[in-house]
Specification:
Layout (H helix, E strand, L loop, with lengths): L2 H15 L6 H17 L4 H17 L8 H17 L14 E6 L6 H14 L5 E5 L7 H12 L2 E2 L8 H15 L3 E5 L8 H14 L3 E7 L4 H13 L4 E5 L8 H10 L3 E5 L7 E3 L2 H9 L2 H27 L5 H13 L3 H7 L4 H9 L4 H12 L3 H5 L6 H11 L3 H21 L1 H11 L2
Parallel strand pairs: 1-4, 1-5, 2-3, 2-4, 5-6, 6-7
Antiparallel strand pairs: 7-8
Helix pairs in contact: 1-2, 1-4, 2-3, 3-4, 4-11, 4-12, 5-6, 7-8, 9-10, 12-20, 13-14, 13-16, 14-15, 16-18, 18-19
The protein binds guanosine-5'-diphosphate.
Guanosine-5'-diphosphate binds next to helix 5.
């Protein structure tokens, strides 16, 4: 899937990764190509615009990590923005409501609604161990209700018995009642579709929604219809209100544009994707995996992620050098506290170092835990840069100002200053060798 977009973008980035330095002009040339590739993949114009803007701002504002090329850095940024555009996290069907949980399936005829209803029923039954009842509310298409009954038999999921002559609303109500009486956990309502959106269809959906107040309303759309799928989603959301989207026929989608626009245009998550005709061809929608499939550049992304970690290592080295010179100001303490927070507590780091037992005990008696670390950092942040570099400047009136600025008491400021003095003394006493090691440890 997505071969088209993936191939085009790969071509662009291949060219880009061979360049040495990246300037504004390079970024713009690359982004012009990205823009063209996205438009050709049928991503909607507004989404392309904001996508390219975001990448541009981030690319120009970010430092290129040492040991990757600027082009690789741009690939990583494109990847990040793509994941954000697709929705960041996987969003499963929400079953968190009093049973029976109603799930209403809506969409145009032929989108794959009935098939998807059965796929979801099977998944909820097999994987989530729910007792599921399916009901077809399609009274227009003669064989629709039978089609669902046949599927139900195939996958061993109950369907609501067919009573001829009932309206969709009556069927919905009967389904809910039956589910309640017979102890079903979930009721799946497969509504009727039309070949295109019309007033009657929207009115019918709104009526069913009002009568059955479903917990989820999932729009089933055919990803092959590209832009139309996106417009359709917007329309359904405006008129009926949807809680999520299922994109079908991803298996045949060479362009991937619908997936990329859908979330941005509707604000509603893509919850599942249909990947084939078979009943088990249904997958969770993982934005990072899809971005990887679209870009086909997972290797570069993980390379840049690894390289970014070395930035921390470089910082720690600098700190170690300062310590060797016997300089340890409040700026350094703040940096060190930030590192400690990342690594699960300063005493944890100290404990790993030979000969640091005493310092560790001191820190323990000073009660350094994560909450304390946060408070201490806020005190340091309320100081002027001058004060951080030269703590001796901090006398009574400055202490008052700092305390007020950080929402602490003067007494807390005193405690922090005392602790800093103790740490600085201790570090001086230990000299360079061990602190060098500590710098390395802190960067792991
Ligand atoms: P409905 O009119 O919306 O209920 O559509 P159906 O569920 O009857 O599906 C129409 C056709 O699309 C059927 O032949 C399905 O097998 C097929 N279909 C549904 N979902 C997918 C999918 O994810 N991939 C593929 N390749 N075919 C699908």
């Amino acid at each position: 899937m997505f071969e088209g977009l993936s191939e085009r973008l790969s071509g662009i980035f291949d060219a880009l990764t061979q360049r040495g330095a990246l300037n504004e002009e390079d970024v713009d040339i690359a982004l012009r190509e990205v823009r063209r590739a996205l438009l050709e993949a049928d991503v909607s114009l507004d989404v392309v615009r904001s996508f390219v803007d975001k990448v541009r701002n981030r690319a120009l504002g970010s430092n290129v990590v040492r040991s990757v090329t600027p082009g690789q850095m741009v690939v990583k940024i494109v990847n990040d923005v793509m994941i954000e555009t697709l929705g960041k996290t996987v969003e499963p069907i929400d079953l968190d409501a009093a049973p029976p949980v109603g799930i209403m399936m809506v969409g145009l005829q032929g989108a794959g609604k009935t098939t998807t209803t059965a796929k979801i029923a099977k998944r909820l039954t097999d994987r989530f161990k729910r007792k599921v009842l399916m009901a077809s509310l399609d009274v227009k298409r003669p064989a629709a209700q039978e089609q669902l009954a046949v599927l139900g038999k195939q996958i061993n999921v109950a369907t609501l018995p067919i009573i001829a002559g009932q309206t969709p609303v009556q069927i919905a109500q009967r389904a809910e009642q039956a589910a309640r009486l017979q102890g079903f956990d979930v009721v799946l309502l497969d509504t009727a579709g039309r070949t295109h959106i019309d007033e009657a269809l929207m009115a019918e959906m709104a009526e069913i929604k009002a009568a059955s107040s479903p917990h989820e309303i999932l729009l089933v759309v055919d990803s092959l219809t590209g832009q139309d799928a996106v417009n359709l989603a917007k329309n359904f959301d405006d008129r009926v209100g949807i809680t999520g989207i299922v994109l079908t026929r991803i298996d045949g989608d060479g362009r991937g544009g619908a997936a990329l626009s859908m979330r941005a245009v509707t604000g509603k998550p893509i919850k599942l994707i249909g990947t084939g005709e078979k009943i088990d061809a249904l997958e969770d929608f993982y934005p990072d995996r899809i971005a990887n499939r679209i870009l086909g550049m997972g290797d570069i992304v993980s390379l840049v992620e690894k390289a970014a970690q070395t930035i921390d290592a470089e910082k720690a080295e600098k700190m170690a050098a300062k310590l060797r010179k016997g300089k340890f100001d409040l700026e350094d303490l703040s940096d060190q506290l930030a590192q400690a927070e990342k690594l699960g507590g300063i005493s944890g780091i100290m404990g790993m170092l030979p000969g640091m037992g005493k310092l560790k005990d001191q820190l323990a008696s000073a009660n350094i835990d994560d909450k304390v670390i946060k408070r201490q950092r806020s005190i340091i942040l309320s100081m002027t840069p001058q004060e951080r570099r030269n703590p001796d400047l901090i006398k009574a009136s400055r202490k008052k100002r700092i305390a007020a600025g950080s929402g602490m008491k003067v007494e807390d400021v005193n405690k922090l200053l005392k602790q800093h003095r103790q740490m600085a003394d201790l570090m001086k006493a230990f000299g360079g060798g061990k602190m060098g090691k500590m710098g390395k440890m802190a960067s792991m």
